[in-house]
């Protein structure tokens, strides 16, 4: 099914083939049923092949349906929208931001409303004349909503596609005076109730008077709220190789499962105690997922651990972890096929699978005596196993590798147990302020020590190796090498080792070729500015009023005001690219008296009347121009 989702995303950009795929899937299922009822053992491969093809078609159909529920042809002009706030609004600079469901859109040709029913990431500027919007409020706003503009030529990151895979159809901003809260509230959904409960838990955390960085880390560890994490704090954990601690996932669910299992251990001696413990763990895990806001990463981890917890009730045999991870992935993709493209989904399942495959082998390499040394070695083995499996994805997506991740994880693992356990205990003791305070003080000290340690590791020399990006094909070759090495370690066949060595030669050849033939540098004109791009690195060019910037043999001038009109020149200065942005005042004729213009670029944020006027002047004077509102961006190879 995952294969079908991937192929559909790559080769079926629109949904016109849904009916055909449904028919083909039905044919495959019918043939497999016929083969099954024939009871011919030698034809069993036909049954498996047909079922597999039907699942490929099912994955393709699921993705096309999911894409249809998200995409919408948003109008370019400003419209009036009515919808519901479905998320907790967060402050973003001078604006507020939240996910909203747009239900209706005003028509421009006739009187009335057009149904929309799409999820949008909306920003609005607070208005002192109206109450702020809260989760569940009904509102109307006047705004321009559309799929966000993508500067993917700069960073290879398509922000619009990223939002689409998060279920968000578009983005928009409503200025002060253009929005208003309406009477009535939306029917409270299960997720909105979970978010409200999470806010109540965060209010309890705020009453503890923790340090700002401590409060941010405790909120991320306990309920998965990362909105308070500063950029410096995130960078410190990333450089130390422990950023997974800040994302509520399998590590935290595993710690909670072990802690609660230890508390419920006396029930094992009761009749039916195994059932009681499994059910208690099941409801506790999903209750914790509810308190954390039902984020996809938490649901993923809780679903996997729920399978582990419930399976021993129904079977006495050892339950395969591979079945648990496969079933969890299948159910999640069946619910939302777009999860497949979420990097956290890929990393978490890859890490768990890598731990299952490589941890037993790494842990057996060295037999350690002593409880403390054995714990250290097991932690190191676990970190190595997870890092080994996720290495191709990390190098492809982030292009960096933490050098001291083993040391950092040895410190982080026990401290995370203490922080999580102490936070749960403090929440239980919150009705008793004095007892709660006795637990909060150690939490504050331990979390501060953890943050200081991550900051220190970040300052070590060579703490992070950066700018080692791999292409998609190079990452696939590296992943195949890792799998091949595992097969060789288990079966000890020389042809498998030969296959791994051939893959290594191929990977080395591609890397050497990239080094010897680097991608050409380029200048990229985008909505957000002018960038000098070198491979995957980009640097925004800084302009001062009226001063040209030289890049290679090109001169670039960016004008955003009218101060240039005070200057005079007998000899026009040769400018290759004149970039006119919002705020520019003047006309092309005056520019030609100062500059010898080759190409004029009109920024997307220029008013329409000024854009039309400048285009007419360029046509009249024979000056070449490029309208970035139509092209989106413009790239010049150096």
Summarize the structure in words.
By secondary structure, the protein is of the alpha+beta class. The protein folds into 5 domains: 2-70; 79-187, OB fold (Dihydrolipoamide Acetyltransferase, E2P); 194-466, no CATH class; 472-516; 522-637, no CATH class. It is built from 21 helices and 18 strands. Helix 7 (212-223) packs across helix 16, helix 9 crosses helix 15 (405-428) and helix 13 (343-363) packs antiparallel against helix 14 (371-397). The mean pLDDT is 82.
**Count of DSSP H/I helices:** 21
Gross geometry: globular
Oligomer: single chain
- Helix vs. strand class: alpha+beta
Largest sheet: 5 strands, mixed, barrel
Distance between the termini: 44 Å
Count of all domains? 5
Q: How many distinct beta strands?
A: 18
Q: State the strand order across the main sheet.
A: 1-3-4-6-5
Helix content: 40-55%
Record keyword descriptors for this entry.
single chain; 638 residues; OB fold (Dihydrolipoamide Acetyltransferase, E2P); 5 domains; 5-stranded mixed barrel; 18 strands; 54% helix; 17% strand; globular
